[in-house]
Amino acid sequence: MSLQTAPSDSAEHRANRPEDVQALEADARLRDDIRLLGRILGDTVRDQEGADVFDLVERIRQTSIRFHRDEDRLARRELEQILDSMSTSETVRIVRAFSYFSHLANIAEDQNNIRQMRARSAGKSSGVLAETLAHARDAGIGPDQLRSFFKSALVSPVLTAHPTEVRRKSTMDREMKVAGLLDRRERVALTAEEADASDEQLRREVLTLWQTNLLRRTKLTVLDEVANGLSFYDYTFLREVPRLVNALEDRLEEGGEQAASELASFLRMGSWIGGDRDGNPFVTADVMRGTLRLQSSRVMQFYLEELHVLGSELSIAAHLADVSEELRNLAERSPDTSPHRSGEPYRLAVSGIYARLTATAEKLAVEITRRPVGKGAPYASVKELQADLDVLHRSLISNNARVIARGRLRLLRRAVDCFGFHLARLDIRQNSAVHERTIAELMDAANPGMSYLALGEEARISLLTNELRSTRALVSPFVKYSDETMGELNVFHAAAEAHAMFGSDAIPQCIISMCKGMSDMLEVAVLLKEVGLVHPSGRSAINIVPLFETIEDLQASSGIMDRMLSLHDYRRLVDSRGSVQEVMLGYSDSNKDGGFVTSGWELYKAEINLVEVFERHHVRLRLFHGRGGSVGRGGGPSYDAIIAQPGGAVNGQIRITEQGEIISSKYSNAEVGRNNLEILAAATLEASLLHPRQSAPRREYLTAMDELSNLAFKAYRGLVYETDGFVDYFWSSTVINEIATLNIGSRPASRKKTRAIEDLRAIPWVFSWAQCRLMLPGWYGFGSAVEQWIAEHPDKGMPFLKELYREWPFFRMLLSNMDMVLAKSSIAIASRYAELVPDEALREKIFGRIRREWHSCIETLLDIMGQDRLLQGNPLLERSVRHRFPYLDPLNHVQVELLKEHRAQNPDEQVLRGIQLTINGISAGLRNTG
Fold it and tell me: Catalytic residue numbers?
């Protein structure tokens, strides 16, 4: 059994350029890796399940390849007959085999990407960040200007627990072992004995993977999600974030004098895991406290381990090298009385730091496994720890040991600066409706006869503004409040405790989901005042961040922020935060609300308008982009997305969510993780300093996009929200019900217990369309919009749209993302899912519209992009997608048949398990879910 990924002969004959030859060499090595893993998996299936199952898998695989390669209709019928004739037990085995094919192919592809990334970095550029710095140099931007830029810059990937990662951590761990073995074979010249041992270890890992549950048997708790998220700090962040900043610092000093001060740590990790309460009743004050302790425990353990090794490394003897007076003083205060270290001041100093850090962990009530050699006083703040580490640094530098100072000590000092005692900046988030109910209960209790909910917006603004100035408490100890209100107050109290324990960076943002007006923001300010995080004098210890999510809210966002920044009492809070106001933009819900085209366009317009408003108020705008993993939820290449932002929208600071399966694909491997962090930093630098404001699109571009958006919006809304029976069609033709049975997250799939599309979360919405291979949220409405626009503008027509694509990064990114989504879709497979709709008339009416729009969209997209086929401009991805289809299609076919069985009330538990396994396998094959 092997996974064939051979390029066509014609491609080989065409490849005579150096880059083509390099691509073919990479393809050959990828093919070798996939064949190796496929052969091992095939042997495993034969050994574990028997020759009959192995032969069946091979028949299905070869028949599916024949159908896709030659479009052999007989092969399709043969494939369907094989799949339909299998028992449920056989089906589950086949599904597992094909699912693991996809997982192992992903590993081989990832290793191939690393191989190519390493080859590019071996050249002059050494990575995307180095290239961007070179461009800055060419543009006349010197090292001092760049240091000044990074001093106020912020690049912050924010990990969330959105439930789109279908793999268990146990499975991911095994896959990482396989990847590590492939990587070693690539880098090390193995002896014959070592090669045999490597093969055996690969077989061991694949067999363990085969015998490991693909599916979780129990539902994840929030703290399980926290623990899973923290594993990526071990894999990547704890070491690669400091290394990246230090490497950048070195590049800025190349060919010049050393800077007077160190480069600012502009790269900061953020998290929602354990702080995001929007629609998740399991995130409580106690869970948030537990989250902060787990985060602190992870970073404290890291510091202690690094100090332990550092102590062994700094064996510098006082009689062989000079030390500074402050280092001697630090060593003398050490509780380490070992005679073996009496003449080694650096080791004594490190022992003292170690003892104090252990005492700090004890004070913060966080778990650590290491114990000190003596007692020390806990650090009052992270600045005290930094001061002690700086003593070591200065002593080494002043005594001609710079090369030692630049080793482990430098990385540790940078890590402490990046992560503090809190590790990641935890955001707290809640829906505006919950804040509204909480404030209503508090206000009505404090003002008998009042009905806060009956007040209009202006009356609420006035009342809340007065409350912000008041020095009295709104909460009374003599009133019994509802459980919901007490729960919200407890969370805010826990946030205040976190500031006192871990510092203000532990929880720097309070995000308001579904923010629709000024009162939504003022309500949060009043609640924060109740716990001391906002002071009546106009000071705030936390950023109040509105999240604008729907099309209507995006359109209103600039007007809301204009009034907020004009409101004296709120403006004082902003000024107390350094005159920086963060605004979060929601990609997922705006897409579900208005479709892919309109969502992207309204987000772009909102940014243009917000930039103008903030410049007028002399406040720095920081945008927080709530992007999902899939294109239907705002996903796509991060670099392109940042570069395509309108002028002034980045301005040196950006935060971006990293969700679900995207976290593991980007950050499970340290080398890949470092590259992705570099991409964020490079794009932020380029968008801020190298894109002049005058590059704003021409007015006629904006007008055309407005018209296209309106037409696409009408088509999308017409289908999803205005077509009778669409809700029934959606719930019947997708796996939406069955997705809810997967234990992939702690959060419910819907905000309310209804079937309405409005109440459904964006993740299961997109996830469902991906499984049936329609990917509808990533393209629907574009084709008919273009056709109608051309009919209304015959004077401009297609040449003008081609100009838009050629000249405007935003439009180019929009179409590039659609190109990728449509390439993964299959209207033939989707038609099988449409057959699940029992009402034949409804099925024909809705699927007929979808099919016509799909064909129209592909035709217009290719015309504008000047392509003959999808992904023509991205041959690497094109090959990947094309070679996955033969392994995806059988899983889709089986899924449809199992859905029929399940919905016919088949009591066999294997049926539901089979469906869940197909969901896992299809997700792996598509490489994204929701």
Answer: 162, 592
